[in-house]
Amino acid sequence: MVLKHMKTPIGWWQSSINIQPLPSLGLTSTLTLEIMSGPECCKNPPAISSGGESGEVLQIASLNSYVSGKPDSKIAVLLVSDVYGYEAPKLRQVADKVASAGYYAVVPDFFNGDPMTSEYEIDDWLRKHTPEQVVEFAKPLIQALKEKGITRVGAAGFCWGGKVVVELAKYGEIQVAALLHPSLVTLDDIKGVRVPIAILGAELDKQSPPELIKEFEAALVANEVYHFVKIYPGVGHGWTIRYNDDDAAEVKSAEEAHQDLVNWFMKCL
What we know:
Layout lengths: L1 E2 L2 E2 L10 E2 L13 E2 L21 E5 L2 E6 L6 E6 L8 H12 L3 E5 L13 H7 L2 H17 L4 E7 L2 H10 L5 E5 L6 H5 L5 E6 L7 H13 L4 E6 L6 H4 L5 H21 L1
């Protein structure tokens, strides 16, 4: 199902734990955060990358980053990970696909070697790593890319990374945005976006269900923001980079989303 525009309240993690609102996430004071220590955001965690990618790890603005593509490209695409970080093999494979379209793909280690692992409770990890912090890490990285000759920057955020990309899009740090099964993104966030944005959602996603995606759509329509919105049937939260290799339908849907992502950047960057 393809939707033509969009806006959102909150796609966030749920559990029985209620905490005070976190201003750093841009949430209103009337809202109670629910943190998910449950299965959806942590389903099918990736193995650490063991090689086989097309790119390499370099340091950019003090951050280790997986980079793929021609270094002399004038257009960069940042891929902002979910809670599992930049070493996830399937995320790096998406970066390679983006790079194959002619872009300089960059997957930064925004967690400084501290991704979500089984040693953490998800709520503890989330308190340590806020999107606001990562936005501040991203700014000097983008500046460093510009200093090496990059003239335009796009960004794709996966799950947790969607909030980071929305913040970058609101404040003009990037020229094109994409959100894939986003979490934490609010309706006010979407109302603040003024750059072309794609939102790729999942029919079975409980963090950002189709109902929220439709709200995103309405806001983008109202603000006349160029966009592409699509809901992929039969898949759930995180499927584009945590799909089950043994599920042919999931694999096919993930590959479709990857191609849609590349096509979006080719159209807008």
